Amino acid sequence: MKKMIIPTVPECIATRNYGLLSRFSRQVMMRCGWTIIGDLPQQPKFILAVAPHTSNWDFFVGIGVMFTLNLKVRVLAKGSLFRWPIKSLLNGIGGIGVDRNHSHGVVGQIVDEFNSNEKFILGIAPEGTRSKTVEWRTGFLHIAKQANVPVVPVSFDFFKKEVKFHHAVIITGDINQELVEFKQVFANVCAKKPQAV
Fold first, then answer.
1. Does position 20 have pLDDT exceeding 70, yes or no?
2. Do 96 and 76 touch, CB atoms closer than 8 A?
C-alpha cells in the first residue's frame, strides 16, 4: 500500500490537531483508494465550495479530508440543532448555528464571522441539496464578495477517488455570471450519484 501524498497546509491557515483521528482518517482514505491533490491558498480566510453533492457519502469524504489535513473548517447548520444531545458534536466538527433572524440575514451573519476572526475557513455545498438541481444557491458567492475572501472550488470525484483543491477564485463581478463560470470547474467531475447531477 502506497503512502498517501497530501497537500501542504500553509501555516497561515486555521488548523486543529485531531491526533488519532487524523492518522485514522488518513489510513482509511488511503485504504479506500482516495487521493487529495491541489494546493490550499496562502490566505487565512477563504471558502471551500464542495461539489457535486449528491450523497451522504460526500459528508464522510469531507470529514475524512478535514481530519487528514487537520483543517479547522466551519460548516453551517440550523441553529435549532444546537441543543443537547448533539450540540457538542456539532461544535466539535465546526458547526455554526445559522440564525435566520439575524439583522443582516444568513449572509450577513457569516460575513460577520469572517470579519471577527483572524483565521476562518467556511465549508459549504453550493447546491444546497443532495437532490438533482439545476440552480445552485448564490449565498456563498455573496459571502465571498462582501467578506472579500476567495472561494476555493473542491471537487469530489468518485470515479477517480480524487479530492481536488482547485485554484482560488476572487469574486468581483456579477454574481450570476460568476456562478456560471464557477460551475464549469465541476463539469467533468463524477459524483457519487451521477444521475442526480
1. yes
2. yes
C-alpha 191/C-alpha 48 separation (Å) is 17
**Averaged pLDDT, 146-153:** 96
Strand partners, 49: 124, 153
The Cα diameter of the chain in Å comes to: 53
Prior bond of 194 cis (ω within 30°): no
Sign of the alpha-carbon dihedral angle for 173, 175, 176, 181: positive
- Contacts of the segment 79-88: beta carbons below 8 A, 24+ positions apart: none
Cell of 8: 501542504
Local confidence band at 86 (pLDDT 50, 70, 90 cut-offs): low
Q: Determine the average pLDDT of the residues in 131-156.
A: 87
**Which residue type sits at 128?**
G
In the three-class reduction of DSSP (H, G, I as helix; E, B as strand; rest coil), residue 164 is classed as: strand
Residue with cell 444546497: 128
Q: Tell me what the mean pLDDT of segment 83-96 comes to.
A: 68
Q: pLDDT > 70: what percent of the chain?
A: 81
Instruction: DSSP for 46-89, please give it.
Output: EEEEEE---STHHHHHHHHHHHHHTB-EEEEEEGGG-STTTHHH
What is the DSSP-derived secondary structure letter of residue 139? H
Rounded CA separation 127/118 (Å): 28
Contact 42, 179 (CB under 8 A): no
Question: Phi/psi of residue 89, each to 5°?
Answer: -65, -45
